[in-house]
């Protein structure tokens, strides 16, 4: 199964991957990264910080502008992708397996909070 | 209604990402801003800048009229020469920045920013009352192609340019058999040309330049790289670094203003006073000391006190650092080498005031 078959996407272009055990990986979709162009800076939160669904948890900058990244569900940061902070250009190559942003432990009603997220195919369709 | 240049379809077919800029649907990038940026610094790039305005000024008083509206001395501008100018209001604040070319004894070409063409024309017409002059906006008739980079001259010669042309000159020429006006100017900090061509020939010329430029590694370049290139060269962008509340002296453009111009011009009193007595704010270049990026309108601090504001900022692909232009308090303690702080998302980040331009022109040509 390819990664895009396993993820859910938000309308603000984050993806959410369920890793089981109430933990998830969050990052940006390939569409978001392509729209941003060359990514030159990434600011990620500290481990253990808690965010509610919809809150800004990270900032990404392309050559032209800074954009905020939002939590697709509520959670506590348990791991950040240090490699992506050091070399943000890896997001341009692959924003899923290499360029993911953070791993979280869900702190809210994760199942319910995923209701407004879309499967990748539907997300792509919405974009057209 | 968003406007399209005559090369719009070319950009779309090349897979460009299109954005709205100053009322025009323009290519921001074809592949990658950083890659396109390096192409212009190392090889040669082709830009469609047809959104810019071309205003022809002619008539018995053409020189006197232009001399009234810019601080530069148009009476000293020679045939086929160009001069970088500003268009100040009565208080010295800038309505636009321009390049003026002398095309004939009584004929001049004014190139203005796309975003300011209406304001420029209004201002020109308002100031033309007592002059025998014709102000003719012919922007819709011409396409403007910029060929910029160390191989720009070689490419233009290969395509038929046969006269030696110095920087800041304009000459009628034939490129690939097409009649054009060739100007050795640009907005990248590299050597290069800006080619004014009738719209009906623009598509042919665009394709031919890309074809003939292949051996030099030419690529089409979008507005994204145009912005990073001009920032490295510390060239001002109207709307970011220049506006109606900023004088050319504050903007660090004193070098472009003659101190001995006899004729009166709009804003002369303020401008001459500022040359003599100084200004409250000044433009400086900043280099960020960490990986953060200063952007337009971020605040600048020193010792906890707010001293200024960023007007342009972004990555410098050549320096591998992030750079910015800022207006700061004109204080002799705030100078090259000073460490200041930029407020970015509620945190202060150190930056050093550095000399402008950030990247020197490597391919200097005779002026």
What would you note in describing this structure?
The complex is a heterodimer of chains A (128) and B (367). Helices cover 25% and strands 38% of the residues of chain A. Chain A has 6 helices and 10 strands; from the N terminus they run H-E-E-E-H-E-E-E-E-E-H-H-E-H-E-H. Chain A has helices at 3-6, 30-36, 82-86, 90-93, 110-113, 120-127, and strands spanning 7-9, 14-20, 23-28, 39-43, 50-51, 56-62, 66-70, 75-80, 102-106, 118-119. Chain A is globular. Chain B has 367 residues and is of the alpha+beta class. Chain B has 2 domains: 1-277, Gyrase A, domain 2 (2-Layer Sandwich); 280-354, Beta Barrel (Elongation Factor Tu (Ef-tu), domain 3). In chain B, strand 10 and strand 11 form a beta hairpin. Chain A binds chain B through residues 35, 37-38, 40-41, 43, 59, 61-66, 92, and chain B through 17, 28-29, 32-34, 224, 227-228, 291-293, 295, 314-315, 322, 345.
Major protein interface: A-B, 14 and 17 residues
Annotated CATH homologous superfamily of chain A: RNA polymerase II/Efflux pump adaptor protein, barrel-sandwich hybrid domain
The average pLDDT value of chain B, as a whole number, equals: 96
Strand content of chain B: 25-35%
Share of helix of chain B, binned: 10-25%
Question: Kindly, what is the distance between the CA atoms of the first and last residues of chain A, rounded to a whole number of angstroms?
Answer: 24 Å
Uncertain residue ranges of chain A: none
Q: How is the quaternary structure best described?
A: heterodimer
Rg of chain B, alpha carbons: 20 Å
What order do the SSEs of chain B take from the amino end to the carboxyl end, as H and E?
A: HEEHEEHEEEHEEHEEEHEHHEEEEEE
Would you list the SSEs of chain A in sequence order as H and E?
HEEEHEEEEEHHEHEH
Number-wise, the strands of chain B total 19
């Amino acid at each position: 199964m390819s990664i895009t078959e396993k993820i859910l996407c938000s309308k603000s272009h984050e993806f959410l991957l369920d890793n089981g055990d109430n933990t998830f990986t969050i990052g940006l979709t390939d569409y978001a990264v392509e729209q941003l162009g060359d990514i030159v800076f990434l600011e990620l939160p500290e481990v253990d910080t808690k965010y509610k669904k919809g809150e800004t948890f990270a900032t990404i900058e392309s050559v032209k502008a800074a954009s905020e990244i939002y939590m697709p569900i509520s959670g506590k940061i348990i791991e950040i992708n240090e490699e992506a902070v050091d070399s943000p250009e890896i997001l341009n190559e692959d924003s899923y397996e290499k360029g993911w942003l953070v791993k979280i432990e869900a702190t809210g009603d994760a199942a319910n909070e995923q209701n407004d997220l879309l499967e990748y195919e539907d997300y792509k369709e919405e974009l057209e | 209604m968003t406007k399209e240049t005559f090369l719009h379809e070319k950009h779309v077919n090349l897979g460009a990402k299109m954005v709205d800029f100053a009322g025009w649907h323009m290519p921001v990038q074809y592949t990658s801003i950083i890659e396109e940026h390096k192409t212009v610094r190392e090889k040669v790039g082709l830009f469609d800048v047809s959104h810019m305005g071309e205003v022809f000024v002619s008539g018995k008083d053409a020189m006197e009229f232009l001399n009234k509206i810019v601080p530069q001395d148009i009476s000293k501008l020679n045939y086929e020469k160009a001069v970088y100018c500003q268009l100040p209001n009565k208080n010295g604040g800038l309505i636009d920045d321009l390049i003026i070319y002398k095309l004939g004894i009584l004929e001049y070409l004014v190139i203005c920013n796309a975003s300011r063409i209406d304001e420029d024309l209004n201002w020109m017409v308002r100031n033309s009352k007592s002059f025998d002059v014709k102000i003719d906006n012919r922007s819709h008739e011409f396409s403007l192609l910029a060929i910029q980079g160390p191989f720009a001259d070689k490419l233009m010669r290969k395509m038929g340019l046969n006269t030696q042309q110095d920087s800041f000159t304009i000459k009628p020429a034939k490129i690939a058999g097409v009649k054009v006006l060739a100007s050795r100017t640009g907005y990248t900090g590299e050597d290069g040309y800006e080619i004014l061509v009738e719209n009906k020939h623009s598509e042919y010329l665009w394709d031919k330049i890309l074809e003939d430029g292949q051996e030099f590694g030419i690529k089409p370049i979008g507005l994204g790289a145009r912005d990073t290139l001009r920032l490295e060269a510390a060239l001002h962008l109207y709307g970011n670094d220049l506006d109606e509340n900023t004088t050319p002296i504050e903007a660090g453009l004193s070098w472009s203003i003659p101190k001995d111009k006899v004729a009166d011009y709009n804003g002369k009193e303020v401008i001459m006073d500022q040359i003599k007595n100084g200004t409250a704010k000044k433009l400086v270049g900043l280099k960020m000391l960490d990986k953060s990026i200063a952007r337009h309108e971020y605040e600048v601090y020193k010792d906890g006190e707010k001293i200024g504001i960023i007007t342009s900022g972004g990555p410098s692909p050549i320096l591998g650092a992030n750079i910015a232009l800022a207006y700061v308090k004109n204080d002799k303690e705030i100078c090259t080498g000073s460490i200041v702080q930029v407020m970015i998302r509620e945190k202060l980040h150190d930056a050093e005031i550095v000399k402008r331009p950030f990247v020197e022109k490597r391919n200097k040509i005779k002026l």
